[in-house]
User: Which sequence fits this backbone?
């Protein structure tokens, strides 16, 4: 049985797509509790993917605050941006922008599978129920993506076979689930795996449809760090190395106190 997806209601969408310099309501977005990242807030990649459905052109989504679950967020067009708010508080902001990173050569399916056999998890343990990478989620209930380090490098990899629950009805993974799959792996390529990081900004591009039931290589790599900000790339590849989807991801390193507050 398919998961209940986050709801997206749209109105006046044409204005959001033509870049008019106005502020107008577009619709609302609700992230269902099944799609959490931390125990009490939404997964950043999934929520960004839901908002991305309102854009026809490449864009970047910034996460400004924890994403509430089972709570409608009003989406408005503000100049060339879409802003999802709770009351007057911005939660998600989508603006025009495309991916900038060139993915390195993908690991082989065998190497990615081997890396995933010894997965790494964020240090505080507060993300064990994450929709994407939570070790306490069952396959088909969550994406069940568990990346491990690739050799001794700041890279992570795994093999992911998308479950039929994430099908769009035509044999392809729904775009919001692809965005989600491109989220968490980036965090496992960052320098201090004992530290907890949360997604702050994401730009994704889906180059080819991802087929449900077919294994893909997930590859993530660290690009740079500046204080508590860390930048990583993620990619999904077919077994022959064909690039299927990719993302640029900006991560924020949490303090021990912040990480501890997420524990269930």
Assistant:
């Amino acid at each position: 049985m398919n998961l209940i997806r986050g709801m997206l209601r749209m109105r006046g969408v044409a204005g959001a797509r033509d870049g008019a310099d106005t502020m107008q309501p577009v619709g609302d977005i609700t992230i269902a509790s099944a799609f959490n990242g931390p125990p009490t807030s939404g997964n950043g990649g999934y929520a960004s993917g839901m908002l991305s459905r309102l854009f026809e052109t490449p864009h970047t989504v910034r996460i400004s605050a924890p994403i509430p679950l089972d709570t409608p967020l009003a989406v408005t067009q503000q100049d060339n941006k879409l802003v999802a708010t709770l009351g007057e508080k911005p939660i998600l902001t989508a603006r025009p922008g495309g991916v900038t990173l060139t993915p390195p050569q993908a690991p082989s399916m065998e190497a990615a599978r081997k890396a995933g056999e010894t997965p790494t998890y964020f240090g505080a343990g507060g993300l064990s129920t994450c929709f994407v990478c939570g070790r306490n989620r069952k396959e088909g209930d969550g994406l069940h993506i568990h990346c491990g380090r690739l050799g001794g490098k700041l890279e992570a990899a795994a093999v992911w076979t998308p479950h039929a629950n994430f099908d769009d009805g035509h044999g392809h993974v729904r775009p919001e689930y692809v965005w989600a799959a491109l989220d968490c792996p980036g965090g496992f390529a960052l320098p201090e795996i004992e530290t907890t990081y949360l997604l702050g900004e994401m730009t994704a591009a889906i180059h080819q449809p991802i087929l449900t039931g077919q294994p893909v290589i997930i590859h993530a790599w660290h690009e740079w760090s500046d204080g508590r900000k860390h930048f990583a790339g993620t990619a999904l590849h077919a077994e022959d190395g064909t690039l299927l989807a990719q993302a640029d991801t900006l991560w924020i390193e949490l303090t021990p106190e912040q990480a501890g507050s997420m524990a269930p």
Summary: Residues 44-52 form the longest helix (9 residues).
